[in-house]
Write a structure and sequence with these properties.
The chain is α+β, with helices and mostly antiparallel strands. The protein has helices at residues 8-42, 49-62, 68-94, 139-149, 155-164, 166-169, 199-215, and strands spanning 100-101, 107-110, 121-123, 128-135, 151-153, 184-188, 191-194, 228-245, 248-267, 270-283, 288-292, 302-303.
Length: 304
């Protein structure tokens, strides 16, 4: 039998072809892995931004030389979300969860508000009107109304709301009012907007209105001059044998109906206002049973 010899150039050619094939296969696998890492990063940005931060950081660390547009997009997310995360973390430390008592997954009582007094006021003869009225039939009912006014969203819901709005909070000019429990939902012309009507919220607008009276509509440190503002607050508590709301029926309860309206004007095309309502149900012992924020007005506002 004759020995069959493969020419050297043929061996070299076969080896080269195998090497190229192997490199192509590895490149295809690498591209697939990069795409998977990138889409894991981007597909979680809206629904689970905290997880997206982890995924995007891992993608950027492992594939810093990927397509420049993709790297830039993931990098911008990490920078912006990190800014929001730092702001939120700092804010949450300034309002300790220990200040909240009782409650459920959706609401809790902010203990410091129980000691706050909302003043009666009927000051309508001014550009900065204040009308505050609270209705109750006894000192015991007044105490229950105080408790209803101190009901907020739970710390768990507050944290969730903050992270849901991380894109807004990432803006350099947006700051969180540290130490102020979250009854607010952002700013309008440097003034906090209300989300949940509480004792702290009412006192904030009352003090603001009084300050405007003294400064003729100026806020220290900004360029706005408010020509007029209007604060109206009405709260009441009544004992009812039966009460039905949002498909739920309660027996032998106290019902607190709390509404606040605010308007501000700083020029012909510079105005903003809203009305917010909160319903709080308490049992005959004075324990809070439920909070409702489902009034249509809670989703409305006016702008000029």
């Amino acid at each position: 039998m004759k020995n069959f010899k493969i020419p050297f150039f043929a061996i070299f050619l076969l080896a080269s072809n195998y090497s190229v094939y192997t490199q192509q296969r590895e490149t295809a696998a690498g591209i697939k892995a990069k795409h998977a890492a990138y889409f894991l990063c981007t597909n979680t940005m809206n629904e689970e931004p905290q997880k997206a931060l982890e995924y995007c950081s891992a993608y950027l660390k492992k594939y810093p030389n990927d397509d420049a547009r993709l790297v830039e997009f993931a990098g911008n997310f990490v920078k912006r979300y990190s800014v929001s995360n730092d702001k939120i973390s700092s804010y949450l430390k300034s309002v300790s969860p220990d200040f909240f008592i009782g409650g459920s997954d959706s609401w809790a009582i902010y203990k410091p508000d129980l000691a706050k007094n909302i003043p009666f006021a009927s000051e309508k003869d001014d550009n900065y009107k204040i009308e505050i009225a609270r209705e109750y039939n006894s000192p015991a009912e007044e105490e229950l109304l105080n408790k209803a006014e101190a009901v907020y969203k739970s710390p768990k819901e507050i944290k969730k709301d903050l992270y849901k709005n991380w894109i807004y909070l990432a803006q350099a000019q947006v700051d969180l009012p540290k130490g102020e429990p979250k009854w607010w939902m952002g700013f309008a012309d440097t003034i906090l907007q209300t989300e949940v009507v509480t004792s702290s919220a009412v006192i904030y607008y009352y003090n603001l209105s009084q300050n405007f009276r003294a400064t003729k509509g100026r806020i220290k440190g900004n360029d706005f001059t408010f020509q007029r503002t209007d604060l109206k607050y009405d709260s009441s508590i009544k004992k009812l044998a039966k009460y039905t709301h949002a498909g739920k029926t309660f027996s032998n309860v106290y019902v607190a109906d709390i509404t606040m309206t605010w308007g501000q004007v700083c020029g012909g095309l510079c105005g903003y206002g809203w009305t917010r309502n909160k319903i709080v149900i308490l049992n005959h012992k004075g324990d809070v049973l439920e909070m409702f924020l489902d009034a249509d007005v809670n989703h409305q506002m006016w702008v000029s």
